[in-house]
Design brief:
This protein is α+β, with helices and mostly antiparallel strands. The protein folds into 3 domains: 60 residues, no CATH class; 66 residues, wza like fold (2-Layer Sandwich); 69 residues, Outer membrane lipoprotein wza domain like (Outer membrane lipoprotein wza fold like), CATH 3.10.560. It contains 5 helices and 12 strands. The strands form 4 sheets. A 5-stranded mixed beta sheet has the order 9-8-12-10-11, covered by helices on one side. Strands 4-3-7 form a 3-stranded antiparallel beta sheet, with helices on one face. Strands 1-2 form a two-stranded parallel ribbon. Strand 3 and strand 4 form a beta hairpin. The longest helix is centred in the N-terminal third of the chain and has 19 residues. It is elongated. 16% of the residues are buried.
Length: 263
């Protein structure tokens, strides 16, 4: 009887010692974050590590622990769970808008080379031919009339193009090697209508603008719209109407219409 009690006491002491022995500690390995969490927290750099099971742990406990996907390291000091720092969200560069350079005055309003038309007076010089050098007016049909060669079309041509036409005709049996120069002696007039003090026809002034035309016509009336004007211009035989600012250059033959403001 005493022997039985002594055996039970020894068994109780052994079980108590086993219960008090340090046991392995398991840590849950979180799943890798996805979506927004992945962008904020990043992915785990390594799985968490737990201390190796002490030698006093019983085999059943160690076997149970080893059935889970845990990593073991020698000693608790080896446990250093860490996560890689989250990558900074990609910064989308704000679009840079470079201001466009301001258009030149008159750009887009038929600001190419000046073309001749009815009402222009030209100074034509044929070198070495005093009888042909003279002033010529472009008539209503758009032609000039010269000695020897007769009528030459000037409408729609630049001064250089007209000089080439005259030279070609002179070369055809009149002058062996003609050299011709053409310049505008007097431009055809421009017209201004609408809300100005003195509307009408006026001589064109070189490099004039719509604002200059208004000044020549005596200025705006009290009811004039003073920001833009309507210009009618003939280009390549076709008339075009355009609303232009006051600093738009004018051409000979243009018609300027100053509109009335509504209020």
């Amino acid at each position: 009887m005493r022997a039985t009690r002594f055996l039970l006491l020894l068994m109780a002491i052994g079980l108590g010692a086993a219960a008090c022995a340090p046991q392995p500690v398991a840590y849950y390995t979180p799943a890798a974050p996805t979506g927004i969490d992945a962008a904020v927290y990043g992915a785990p750099a390594a799985r968490p590590v737990i201390a190796a099971a002490p030698a006093a742990a019983n085999a059943s406990s160690r076997g149970l622990l080893q059935s889970f996907p845990f990593a073991f390291a020698p000693g608790y000091a080896g446990y250093r769970p860490s996560y890689a720092p989250a990558a900074a969200p990609a910064q989308i560069a704000a679009p840079v808008y470079a201001p466009s350079p301001p258009p030149a005055p008159g750009a887009g309003y038929g600001s190419g080379p000046y073309t001749l038309d009815s009402g222009d007076r030209l100074r034509i010089v044929v070198f070495g031919q005093d009888g042909l050098t003279n002033s010529y007016a472009v008539d209503a049909s758009g032609h000039i009339d010269m000695p020897l060669i007769g009528s030459v079309l000037a409408r729609g041509a630049t001064t250089d193009e007209l000089a080439a036409r005259i030279a070609a005709k002179l070369r055809d049996g009149y002058v062996r090697d003609p050299h011709v120069a053409v310049e505008v002696e007097a431009y055809r007039p421009f017209f201004i209508l609408g809300e100005v003090t003195a509307p009408g026809q006026y001589p064109y002034v070189a490099n004039m603008t719509a604002e200059t035309a208004v000044a020549i016509a005596g200025g705006f009336t009290p009811r004039a719209f003073r920001k833009t004007v309507v210009v009618t211009r003939t280009l390549n035989g076709q008339q075009m109407r355009m609303v232009v600012p006051l600093n738009c250059p004018l051409r000979p033959g243009d018609t300027v219409n100053v509109q009335e403001r509504w209020f």
